[in-house]
Amino acid sequence: MLTRLGFPLSLLLLAALAALLLALGVGSAQISPGQIMDLLQGEGDALARTMVMELRLPRALSAFAVGGLLAVAGALMQVLLRNPLADPYVLGLSGGASIGALAAMLGGLGGLAISGSAFGGALLSTFLVFGLAHGSGGWTPSRLLLTGVVVAAGWGAVITLMLALSPAERLPGMLYWLMGDLSYSRTPWPPLLLLLATCVVLIPLGRSLNVLARGPQQAAALGVAVRPLEWCIYVTASLLTAAAVTTAGSIGFVGLVVPHILRLLLGNDQRLILPACALAGGTLLVLADTLARTLIAPEQLPVGVITALLGVPTFLFLLYRSR
After folding, report:
1. Core-most of 133, 174, 175, 182, by most CB within 10 Å?
2. Beta bridge partners of 138
3. What pTM value is reported for the model?
4. Which of 58, 43, 59, 97 is closest to 243 using CA atoms?
């Protein structure tokens, strides 16, 4: 069992380390892997050490944390809904978190207030989607997806209204942040610690999540406390989405494509999928952010644009392949 779980996770860990090494070395000034190791040990040129330790490393770690948070949140939503099309972006959680964060920004708040507002917006969006989609016949994939799309569209309209009423000097930064921006991510440790803590807590629940993925009635028959577990997934997915949105803005398709691809490759065991999503989602966003800041250097693209350009054709191909 440990061997079956450990081998793919070891490969994903090596890929994550390679992506981080690439992110530290590529940019306006190229730095070799040997120089990076010297800089991480406090040696080497002072200017290069400042560039790596104070600019590239915090941004790369933030990208890894955000990608992992979104991928794990998407995997949890797909287990809860038993639908591979579910993710925080499609179901409106990202939109709700964005509204909460933007409202806090417009109110002159910062720090924990923005994070708390984003979490409240994501949780509100979760309750709206599940409350509106739960009819007399229960949840169905089509009803949930349609409700999520409508709620996400509603959040988009509210965001547009907030932008229209915002002071002109704040618009460029708010627009860039809404497209996904890691330029000002300087404190990667809170989202990284949240990602690690979430994986540690959820992995022991892997068996229960595996049973829940087969349906609430079968899970209840096998002794799983369905309602508390569903609430745990609601709150956890909202918290992860809020942390990701607070750190990097609204980034789509990571939580949709990464769990979908990993299930095709590794199966549907949540004890493997959840930590694999953390590693693969983080690796994907590190590579996307590296591409975003080097593709048209010295100008930088929003990382959300890169993930959309990569995610849309990938998911269309997966849909075509699974006909």
Report:
1. 182
2. 135
3. 0.88
4. 97
Tens digit of each residue's pLDDT, the chain (323 residues): 555 667 889 999 999 999 999 999 887 778 888 888 887 777 777 788 888 888 889 999 999 999 999 999 999 988 887 777 778 877 788 888 889 888 887 887 766 777 778 888 888 887 888 778 776 656 666 677 788 888 888 998 999 998 888 888 777 767 777 878 887 777 888 899 999 999 999 888 888 888 888 877 788 887 888 888 888 887 888 889 888 888 888 888 898 889 988 988 888 888 899 999 999 999 999 999 999 988 887 788 888 888 988 888 887 887 777 65
**186 phi-psi bin (left φ>0, alpha ψ -120 to 50, beta other):** alpha
Q: Which amino acid is at 247?
A: T
CA-atom Rg of the chain in angstroms: 20
Q: How far is CA 2 from CA 8, 37, 207, 303, in A?
A: 11, 31, 15, 35
